[in-house]
Amino acid sequence: MSTQNSRNKELADHYSSGALRERIEHGLNTLSQPPTVASLGAVDEFHVGGRPATAHLVEQLELGPADRVLDIGSGLGGTGRYIASSTGAAVVGVDVTEEYVHVARWLTELVGLSSVVEFVHAAAADLPAQEREFSAATMVHVGMNIPDKAAVFTDVAAQLAPGSTFGIYDLMITGSERPDYPVPWASTPTTSFLETADDYVAHLAAAGFAIERVTDRSEAALAGIAQQAAAATNGPQPLGLHLVMGPATPTKFGNLVAAIRSGAIVPTEIIARSGGN
Q1: SS in 3 state form for 55-124?
Q2: Does the pLDDT of residue 126 top 70, yes or no?
Q3: Tell me, what DSSP letter sits at residue 238?
Q4: What number of CA atoms fall less than 13 Å from residue 274's CA on the CB side?
């Protein structure tokens, strides 16, 4: 097995449980109302800051019904469904974890968005070769698992029409300090590839992107984490990230929060624009 295939398997093993759909179904069955894009946000927004962070990123992309968006590392599909429901844009999500792709398709069908949001089981570096198909791209809390971001950004650039926006929201390091493991995106350092915002900017520029802005979202992220903690005071909610991360959820989030508070990790948003003719 190649190093990349071995890494992809370890990554899939970290994220996959084999029983995710059943756990989410159980949570949905305890609710009095049918699922909506909004209510699913408690479990499908697998990143720091949750739905408000998604909304902040998407707002800057200025999307509409004529747009077609590529969502890299689409997870359970929360970002894609939010984009489709709030802007009318069509979305194609790609993810390396097969279980996530199956659950994402199921959740999308439950909320009636299967005609405009689709999911593909693929690695970010193995995107379908249909050049210039998309008018925007998103990547939310995915780069931490990508060792060769430069290659992925080059692939994304090839998928985008000239002048398209690329919105990234990732966890980035500020120096040599690293978080304790496990964390939400990795059980061990083997599948964790943290880089600085300057590294991201350099990789994007090399791929032909113009950087429009880089934003430190630490304050908003910590506020969101505090709200999640307050909501869980009386025990886990029917829908929550504990359904995705399992019994190690407190340890994973505790290590992440400590790293953000120390300044070792910064939740960072980057808005870039593709070049070309």
Answers
A1: HHHHHCCCCCCCCEEEEECCCCCHHHHHHHHHHCCEEEEEECCHHHHHHHHHHHHHCCCCCCEEEEECCH
A2: yes
A3: S
A4: 24
For domain 3-274, the CATH architecture is: 3-Layer(aba) Sandwich (3.40)
Decide if pLDDT at 109 tops 50. Answer: yes
Dihedrals phi, psi of 167, to nearest 5 degrees: -105, 125
Q: CA 203, CA 221: separation in Å to the nearest integer?
A: 25
d(CA 60, CA 70): 15
Q: How far apart are CA 11 and CA 4, in angstroms?
A: 10
Return the pLDDT at 192.
95
Return the DSSP state at 232. T
Q: Which helix (H) or strand (E) holds 54?
A: helix 50-59
Upstream peptide bond of 267 is cis (omega within 30 degrees of 0): no
Structure tokens at 182: 């496990």
**What per-residue confidence (pLDDT) applies to 24?**
84
Q: Which class for 65: exposed (0-12), middle (13-18), buried (19 or more C-beta within 10 A)?
A: exposed
Rounded alpha-carbon distances, angstroms, from residue 205 to 31, 60, 101, 198, 235? 46, 19, 30, 10, 45
Average pLDDT value for the chain: 87
From 201, 195, 74, select the one nearest 143 (Cα to Cα).
Answer: 195
What six digits make up the tokens of 39? 């209510």
Spans of all domains in the chain: 3-274
Taking a C-beta distance cutoff of 8 angstroms, is the pair 75, 243 a contact?
Answer: no
CA atoms of 155 and 158, how far apart (whole Å) = 5
Q: What is the pLDDT of residues 142-158, one digit of tens each?
A: 999 999 999 999 999 98
Using CA atoms, how far apart are residues 113 and 126, in angstroms rounded to an integer? 25
